[in-house]
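Support case: user asked for a sample of complex input and structure output to validate their parser. Sending the pair below.
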Amino acid sequence: MQSLTIRRPDDWHLHLRDGAMLRGVIADTSRHFARAIVMPNLVPPVVTTVDARDYRNRILDALPEGHSFEPLMTLYLTEETNPDDVEEGKRSGLITAVKLYPAGATTNSASGVRNLDKVMPVLERMAKIGLPLCVHGEVTTPEVDIFDREAVFIETVLDPLRRRLPELKVTMEHVTTSDGVDYIRSSAANLAGSITTHHLIINRNAILVGGIRPHYYCLPVAKRESHRLALRAAATSGDPRFFLGTDSAPHVDPAKECACGCAGIYCAPNTMSCLAHVFEQEGALDKLEAFVSLNGPAWYGLPPNETRITLVKRAAPVQFPKKIETGAGSVTVFDPMFPIYWDVE
Ligand code: DOR
Ligand code: ZN
């Protein structure tokens, strides 16, 4: 196949940041994607509907002329979140989901949740009004090995929560393990998972072999090869419970290339090209549209996009910039470590 026309995709997990960084990165998403679920982990985080409305306006202001793009806003769940404010956000159409960061799990998660009991009134209200919870599924317990944090989270936090509140819709974001894939597959209802582009391409060797490579470091951290293969099988299966959430997470290069580098991979510019490559490798180009354009809207109760994009396979590798310059500093673009021939027309 040399060309593939699909409905315009959406990104169900994206970091856009704010200010100069927002203005520097937004076009890399709005060029190809119609909508994105925007993560609320700003400093300070987006915790109230007023914060979310203001942030949405800043995103729309940063959009280049002629780009149409719908930011789908999320609230950052804290132990102080007010259920009435959440309900108002959902009723007004502003809020698409609430994000649970276990405190300390990742970038800007210090205001996250330490004790789930404290947020049960919010979660109960969300279950009642049908508002999904997006979950960063890692425990932060220091005794738990970082490579096991997702599996332990499922067993000790997510599964008990879902048994306590089976009506709550939960998106397990950026699934990185076969444990996560199996858990989603085995659930009867109200559970879905997003998968990033980079976790379909790299395993932990990319971070550690031949030198430490900070631009492959993200959270949850990439796992061993068997997990990457399980993610590929899930993404390319057509199973409606799996969809794209790029987790494109820009950090300026000095914040990554240092003694304690930030977690995050910036994959927005070449995500669609990388995915076409992956799906072609798996003999599943016919499943790409489900993964990037159909399964996500169905899960979030939104219509799929009416416009289309066309992917074309070029004779020579497509060149992507190694870095982009933003007003905040340079940001390194995800390097899949293989030539890519697929281009968005
Ligand atoms: O790698 C990551 N980067 N994982 C996250 O959960 C947060 C994100 C960020 O905000 O940079
Ligand atoms: Zn993220």
